[in-house]
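Hello forum,

I keep getting stuck at the same step: I have a sequence, I want structure tokens, and every attempt I make locally crashes halfway through. Rather than fight my setup again tonight, could one of you with a working pipeline run this one for me? It's a single chain of 430 residues.
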Amino acid sequence: MPCVPQVEQGCLLPLQVHGFLFANKRSTRGVMQQSCNRIERSSCWGSVLMWVVGSLILSQTTAVQAQPAVTSTGLQWMAFSDTYFQESIHNPHERTQFAAHRGAVRYNRFAINCLGVYAQFHSQRFGAKVKITPYETFPGSTCAPFKAYALWTPTPGVELTFGKFPTFFGVEAVESWENFNYTRGAVAVLAQPDAFAGMRLEFRATEKFGMNLLITNGPDLGHDNNQLLSFGAQAVFQPSPYFTAKLGYLGGPEEPESFHDHNTGMSVPNLGYEERWTHRGDLVLEAAIGAVALKLNGVLGVRLEPGRDAHTPAPPDPAAENFFALAASGRISVSDTMSFSLRGEYISDPKRWLYQPNLALEHPFEPLTGYFATVTLEYIPFPDVGNPVIRWDNRFELVSESMYYIGNQQHELSRNWFGSILGIVVHLHG
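Reply #2:
Ran it on my machine without issues. Output:
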């Protein structure tokens, strides 16, 4: 939020409750422990996190003098169009034959990637944002997912977000023009969530340190697929204006509580999903000096006991699943109108967690390793208005298992792929 909120008169009443909680730590801890014994484990931790959120907000409020609130408001909107032209080797005829990690690009020749509208309203204390994308070329494009969320800033340095909001993990946004490259990276598409439905607390302790706390249904879930919650946290360090480091964690039971049996047409319980937690660690390093900007993102995923959905065959080895993904990118701004970007990526998926087993492949359960490189030229002919954003991507991919379709052949596959993509984005503001 651009404006600094002030505390309204009369808002200091909850401080008495806050003081009672801290004056009665022993009795409060006992009440919480009794409650934890009666509810599910993740729900218990959700209650604890809610209590911590309230304590942080109220403790920060004590340091602010009561002043009349400023009631200025603002409504902003943006409409955008994202189209592209692509030529690639192997030239598959069907979009379903393109690899899922290609970001927003699935078609050869001309195609629309996304059309959408953003709207946001903000005052000095409250805000709301909505993203509407009436046109989607395919699931997973930059149009998805739909987002709508509310924001509350009870005191400077504390912001609470509720609804379905963008992820704060990783280095790439869903929208192409906010990244260094036009196409999204394989790490962003396969290893990072795009959005969360839930609640996020952003807490800025000092100018150099902040925290993000998260309660959510799970990655990219508009509604929960089980009765438990997932949790996330991220520490943000900014020792100087030129460098930022972020260390995050996301964990929880992400499997559905039941499967649909296609043979019987009935729902089958997924026994034991409560104990099969998925853990993700996320490291982000960002540096910017003058015309040069650098980003590094490392992701580690661990699932102590492998799970599966109704469409994924059981792996032959029931050992723990894991993956590791690394992305490094850099950008050099030659002038106000032109810049060059380079991105290199590596993915190790020994248990085929990210690349779901494809029984059409020769070795569907073999460990898979992928290498990806993207070079981008960006040109903005009218930098004063920032329109249009013209980008030319050249992307090369190499994987350890043949998985790229060749032509219209269903059984002829290749280990490598190259594509040249010209993307044009036009956005209007109001």
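Residues 41-61 form the longest helix (21 residues). If your local run keeps crashing, start a new thread with the error log.
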